[in-house]
Specification:
five-stranded antiparallel beta sheet
Length: 306
């Protein structure tokens, strides 16, 4: 496209009809100008770009929307050059218009998705993270930042599990992530015990998956975890109580079935009590009907007798 300073169109390609719905003849005859079709919200940007080119005597590049005759808009990228006469006066302008509607729509869609992701990362109560191939954090949710005891999610960027957790835990997590990247297989709803460097511990239910780029290449991992410490501790307490009751029942059964003498049975009961209570030792105190002490036994033998 080229035009002189009076905006008279000297040449325009047939591709303009695709962009505007108008035949090239309408521009060549002066019935229409491209400037009339620039979206009102973009007119200032186009004017600034051309004025800057005049001041700097340099090429210009600007992206804007053209209004089609059917009322729709097409996004175009214009690269142009102002031409001057021998006296340095601007006499014409030539430019190349590229239809970038698809790219613009793709970028707008991406921006919307990123905005939604930001909302999710800020509001979710789950711990969410994205890591690179070396296990360093790329992005974390606000909840994950609090889990790591950081002031803001940005404070996690570039750090890894080794900056927060005990060596054994961080190494195991990295091994999981490397396995996911190597095989493409996710870890779903696994129970994991997080152990911090200061010894603090917590249980989480975690899902870890491969992170892909736009071409499908695995570039890292991302994960979602939820604190299940209260539930897990309750489960462990129930399990421990069940094991204790089973041990007590087994002790009673063994004592009743034992053919050993009384002293041996008492020592066996004391030893079993120590194991059941996970104590360093245990004592067995027998009293007569009047409450008088008859004998004391420990897991090691007789301490004293009446």
């Amino acid at each position: 496209m080229a035009c002189n300073g009076a905006e008279t169109v000297m040449f325009i390609s047939t591709g303009v009809e695709t962009l505007t719905g108008l035949a090239p003849e309408e521009f060549l005859s002066g019935q229409r100008t491209l400037a009339q079709l620039v979206h009102p919200e973009d007119q200032e940007a186009v004017t600034i770009a051309i004025d800057q080119a005049l001041v700097n005597r340099a090429p210009y590049s600007v992206t804007y929307r053209l209004t089609h005759v059917d009322g729709s808009s097409r996004s175009v990228h214009e690269q142009g050059q102002v031409l001057y006469d021998d006296k340095g006066k601007a006499v014409s302008r030539g430019g190349l218009l590229l239809d970038v509607t698809d790219q613009a729509e793709l970028q707008e869609t991406l921006l919307r998705q990123l905005a939604l992701l930001d909302v999710l990362m800020e509001t979710t109560t789950d711990n969410v993270y994205f890591k690179d191939a070396e296990g360093s954090f790329l992005k974390v949710s606000a909840a994950q930042a609090r889990w790591l005891r950081l002031a803001t999610p940005d404070d996690a960027i570039g750090k890894s599990d080794f900056d927060f957790f005990a060596e054994e835990h961080a190494s195991a997590a990295l091994a999981d992530e490397q396995g996911i990247m190597r095989t493409g297989q996710s870890i779903i709803d696994a129970e994991e015990r997080d152990t911090w460097k200061d010894g603090r511990m917590a249980w989480v239910s975690t899902t870890k998956m491969p992170l892909h780029d736009g071409h499908g290449n695995v570039i890292g991992t991302f994960g979602i975890s939820r604190d299940i410490t209260k539930r897990k501790m309750a489960e462990l307490a129930i399990q421990e109580n069940q094991e204790r009751m089973t041990a007590i029942i087994n002790t009673q059964r063994d004592a009743a079935a034992s053919k050993e003498d009384a002293d041996a049975v008492l020592e066996m009961i004391a030893a079993s009590a120590a194991q059941i209570t996970k104590a360093d030792g245990a004592a067995l105190l027998l009293l007569d009907a009047e409450g008088e002490q008859l004998v004391v036994r420990t897991a090691q033998g007789i301490l004293e007798s009446a």
